[in-house]
Amino acid sequence: MKPRLLKFGMVAAITLLPLQSAWAEAPLKLVLQITVDQLRGDLIDRNIDHFGDGGFRYLLANGIYYTNAHHRHANTETIVGHTTLATGTDPAVHGMVANLWFDRKSGKPFYNVQDPDYPLLANSGVDQSSEIDPTQRAATSDGRSPVSILSSTLSDEISIANAGASKIFGVSVKDRGAISMAGHSGTAYWFSKSEGRFVTSSYYMDAYPGWVDNWNDSGHVLAYADQAWELKDGVETYRFGEMDDVEWETDFPGFGRSFPHPYDQSGVKYYTTLLTLSPAGDELTAGFAKELVDREQIGQDSIPDYLSVSFSSTDYVGHIFGPSSLEAEDNLRRLDQTISDLLQHVDARVGLENTLVVLSADHGAAEVPGYLNSLGIPASYFSFDDIDKQPAAKALTAEFGAAEELIESFSQPYVYLDETVLEAKGLEKSDVAGKLASELQKFQGIAFAISSEDLASAAVSKTSVSDAILANFHSERSGDIYVVFEPHWFVGDMDGLTVASHHGSPWEYDTHVPIVFSRPGMKSQRISDRVETVDLAPTVAAYLKIKAPSGSRGKVLRNVLEAQ
C-alpha cells in the first residue's frame, strides 16, 4: 500500500525515514511545478507558524529549501520570471523582456504571449469574440501562443526526451503564467475573466475536450456569488490584524479595504475580477488542475508527465493591499491549504513518491510606500506625467524640445523614443537617448537610466545592477532607455489600475524568491547559499537525466541530485 499524505510534520519525519530507500527506487511519473506569483523570498518563513502540515510544511519536511534564491534579471515582472524558471536562461536569451513591450514593426504595444494567428476558443470551440474586462489587459481576444518565447523550456525538453509521449500541461489564472510553463509542446489553460471559465487558444487545439466544457459549466465559478472572502482564523492570530483598513490600500470598487470582502455578483461589473483578487482565484486554479489530472490521466504510465500550476492570487492581493497586509497574510494561509489539497489529490492519483514537486516564484514585491512611510522609511510613487515639469528636463528641452514629445511610450522598464519625431527634427536617436538617459538619472526617484546603445557597446560600469540590466537586454525588444527607480520607488499602475504595491526592479525585495525541490525520501535541508532562478530548469533536467533547455545558462544544484 502506497504511503499517503496523511503523515505530516514530526509524525511525517519519523514515519518517512525507514521508507527512504523504497521511495528512492520509485519510478518518477510526474514533475509538478508550482509557481506562486509574487511569493517574496521571506514570506514562507514569516507565515509558517500558521500553516498546516500538508502544504508548505510538507514540502520543506520532504525536500531542499533554498532560502536565498534570486532572479538575476532586472525587470522582475510576471512573464519574465515565469519564462526564466521555465527555460533556465535570461530574458536576453528567451526574449520575454517585459509583460509589455513596444513593437517597432507594427508601431503598437505588444503583449508578451499575444498571437493573432491563434485566436482564443469559446465554449463551442470557435474563436473568442466577447467583450473583455478592461482591468486586465492580458485577457484580450487577439490570440495567444508561446511563439514569442525564443528558447526551449523544461517542459519542451521532457517532451523531446520522451518522443512526444509525455503529457505536458500548464494551468493558471493568467495566460502568461500558463503558456510560459507549458512551453511550445504542451497545452495551456488559463482563466478568462470575461467568460468566467478556463480557456485556451487554437494554437493548442481546435475544440475543447468534453471534460473542460463540463467543468466550466458545472457552477464552480458561480459558487462564490453573494459570498465573501472572510478571515480564515481569529483576527488576533494575525501579524497585521490591527491593519485591516489603512489609507494606503487600494479601494477596489465593490470589494473594499476591510474584511469581509464581498463577491457580490449583482451590481458589481467585474465579479470574476473580484475572484482573482482573493484566494478564490487560486482555489479555482487548483480545482481545474485536479480535474485535469483525473481526465487526462496524468502520471498513469511509465512515461514522466509534466504539470505546471501557477497560482496568481498572491500577486493580485499584493498589488491591491500590499505584501504586509492582513489580506496578504490571510491569502497565504488559504493558499497553504489549497496547495495541501492539490498535493493530496496528486498523492491519491499518482503517488507523491512518484512525483518531484518544484516550487518557486516569478518575482517578489515592494512594500507599499504608505506602509513604509508610517515606519519612517522613505518611499514614494513615480509618475512620468509631469516629466517636462522636472527641473532636470530643462537642459533636454533646450537642446531637443519637450521630452514628452520625444517619448513614444514608457512601458516598464523601458522608454521608447518616437522615431517619427526624431526623423522630422533631424535628430540622431543615439544622441537623444544618451542625453535623455543622463537627464532622467537626475530626476528624484530614478537611480539609473541607461541607453540601449551603451548596453549594446558595453559602455557601462560593471555592477550588480548593470549586470541585471544586461541580462534583460534584447536588441529587438528592449526599449531605447532602461529606467531603474530608487529603492522603494515605483510607478503605481497595473494595466490602468492604480495599485498600492508593485514589482519590477533589480532590488532585493523584487529578486528574492524561494526555490524548493521536494519528494518523499529527500533529506530535509535549508540551504542559505545564494542560488539563481536560472538554476532551476537545468537542475530538474539533470534530475530527469535529460538535456537542459536550449538557452540554459544556469548551474545544476548538486544537493538535489545527491538527495535522490
First-last Cα distance = 22 Å
The H-level CATH homologous superfamily of the largest domain, spelled out, is: Alkaline Phosphatase, subunit A
> How can the largest sheet be summarized?
10 strands, mixed
Indicate the CATH architecture of the largest domain: 3-Layer(aba) Sandwich
Helices, by number, come to: 23
Beta strands, count: 22
Low-confidence stretches: 1-23, 125-140
Active site: 78 (phosphothreonine intermediate)
EC number: 3.1.3.1
Enzyme class: hydrolase
InterPro entries: Alkaline_phosphatase_core_sf, Alkaline_phosphatase_prok, Phosphodiest/P_Trfase
Written overview of the protein:
This protein is of the alpha/beta class. It folds into two domains: 9-371 and 507-562, Alkaline Phosphatase, subunit A, CATH 3.40.720.10; 383-444 and 446-485, Gyrase A, domain 2, CATH 3.30.1360. It is 33% helix and 17% strand. The protein contains 23 helices and 22 strands. The strands form six sheets. Strands 1, 2, 5, 6, 7, 10, 11, 20, 21 and 22 form a ten-stranded mixed β-sheet that branches. Strands 13-14-16-15 form a four-stranded antiparallel β-sheet. The longest helix has 24 residues, at 326-349. The radius of gyration is 23 Å and the shape is globular. The model is unreliable at 1-23 and 125-140 (pLDDT under 50). Its EC number is 3.1.3.1. Substrate binds at residues 99, 174-176. Pfam families: Phosphodiest (PF01663).
